[in-house]
Automatic annotation (TrEMBL):
Belongs to the peptidase M14 family. Residues 120-384 form the Peptidase M14 domain. SMART domains: Zn_pept (SM00631). It comes from Photobacterium profundum (strain SS9). GO terms for molecular function: metallocarboxypeptidase activity; zinc ion binding. This is Peptidase M14 domain-containing protein.
Length: 384
């Protein structure tokens, strides 16, 4: 979208691609590149950035991302290191400093072209690969529930033979499209569920049918949004009264949920500020009771046992009894279906219990966390 070529250097910045998002304020010298992040369409939110820099390799560059005090999560930039790649496969971290409004980072490019993003992107093309690599497996159906406002597909994978005596497990991801770690997580969960040599998946499919929506917000993902769909709507506040005009993504998925029923639910997200993996439960819903609390504890204990990538000390404040916001998906599901229902949060920064200075939280660790979450699901499947 932006192409700046001065006479002094040949620096160019591009964002006219799937998930691209940046605004160039100044880019006439490598020591002083100034950028801002455009808002999600028809929205006050901005935080997701993704661009390509073409420039002189082996020369020092300084980039300043400006105006972040008014971004969706200013605290998200504190302790955040920028994600970058030369080959669009390995995404490493570049240390950054935040002064409350500007994020500054310095680097010497090893190559003449370099990508930068808020987190490792998960493209619409890779999303289609994921769906179609899944559908060739035995017992996996790919179905289009309908279309989004930008006319993209709302896709559902059904895995396992639906039967009345089987548990119904729903997993959805990327209501907030910039939280790309959520779809990396789904890729891991699907790998394990569909791996015929892995008995965790086989044992689960003996007992349960999985309904998986890997990308709840394809429009936002393609547009380079952090938090909203094409019409600027935060889908995770639409679950009580969705509409085909404003939030078809939620309307279509919710209709199918009401048809199938739900015994267990996971809604996969990323958190901008908190440098840990954690889950948020349904303690504030009107019907919350001892059974529900016991299920939540059993699931969390299983996760603790399975992986050090989970902890339960840092996370969101718990809702007071009866005070849950029922427009939020996991609360709406928990109340509607009286079932175990968690929002799962992974960090944009790192899981500080197991930090990694070179990569931070990464696609690979998101995939592994998806594997582990499936094992924890097996630990509770007889009880849900
Ligand atoms: Zn989210």
């Amino acid at each position: 979208m932006y192409c700046i070529a001065s006479e002094i250097t040949t620096m160019k910045i591009f964002s006219n691609f799937d998930g691209g998002n940046i605004n160039v304020v100044k880019a006439d010298s490598p020591e002083d590149i100034q950028l801002t992040i455009p808002n999600d369409n028809q929205s006050e939110y901005y935080q997701w950035f993704h661009f390509r820099l073409e420039t002189q390799a082996q020369e020092e560059h300084t980039v300043k991302l400006l105006n972040l005090a008014k971004s969706a999560y200013p605290e998200g930039w504190q302790g955040y290191d920028v994600v970058a790649s030369y080959d669009r496969d390995e995404w490493f971290r570049i240390p950054a400093e935040f002064d409350g409004d500007t994020l500054t980072f310095r680097f010497f490019p090893e190559q003449g072209s370099m990508y930068f993003a808020y987190f490792a992107p998960y493209t619409y093309d890779r999303h289609q690969d994921l769906l179609h690599q899944a559908q060739v497996n035995f017992n996996c159906q790919l179905e289009t529930l309908g279309s989004t406002l930008d006319n993209n597909d709302m896709s559902l994978l059904t895995i396992g033979e639906p039967a009345d005596d089987k548990k119904k497990v729903w997993v959805i991801a990327r209501q907030h499209p910039g939280e790309t770690m959520a779809e990396w997580f789904i890729e891991g969960l699907l790998q394990r569920l569909l791996d015929e040599t892995d008995t965790v998946g086989r044992a689960l499919l003996d007992k349960a049918v999985f309904y998986i929506v890997p990308n709840m917000n394809p429009d936002g993902g393609i547009r380079g949004h952090l938090r909203t769909n094409a019409a600027g709507v935060n889908l995770n506040r639409e679950w009580q009264t969705p509409s085909m005009e404003k939030s078809p993504e939620v309307f279509l998925v919710r209709e199918r949920m009401l048809e199938t029923g739900i015994d267990m639910f996971l809604d996969i997200h990323g958190d901008e500020a908190i440098p840990y993996n954690f889950v948020a439960g349904s303690e504030g819903i009107p019907s919350y009771d001892e059974r529900h609390a016991n299920l939540e504890n059993k699931f969390k204990q299983a996760l603790h046992t399975i992986t050090p990538e989970f902890q339960d000390e840092y996370g969101y404040d718990k809702d007071k009894p009866g005070k849950a916001n029922l427009t939020v998906c996991s609360n709406w599901v928990a109340e509607q279906f009286k079932c175990l229902s968690y929002t799962v949060e992974m960090p944009f920064k790192d899981h500080n219990a197991q930090p990694d200075a070179l990569y931070g939280w990464s696609p690979e660790r998101s995939l592994a966390f998806g594997h582990d979450m499936l094992a924890a699901t097996l630990a509770v499947i007889d009880d849900v």
